[in-house]
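The pair is quoted verbatim below.
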Amino acid sequence: MSDRQTLDARRLLCPMPVIRVQERVETMNPGEELEVICTDPGAANDVPAWCRINGHRVLSVEQGAEELRIVIRVGGGEGS
């Protein structure tokens, strides 16, 4: 069983990628990973900023030719 989920946030513009990440993370357990696939270039800053505020860890940010992949590890909430 994998502890990584994938969220397809392609073709969504700010603030929707962050909102979708927040909704998904609320259903996940601490320690699980979420890979977010986006096409909005602003998500490269917005998702990591949201993670810092909410106690989650950004494991990687990879910019491809047409999409961005962000992998986060779910923390225990604010201040984790």
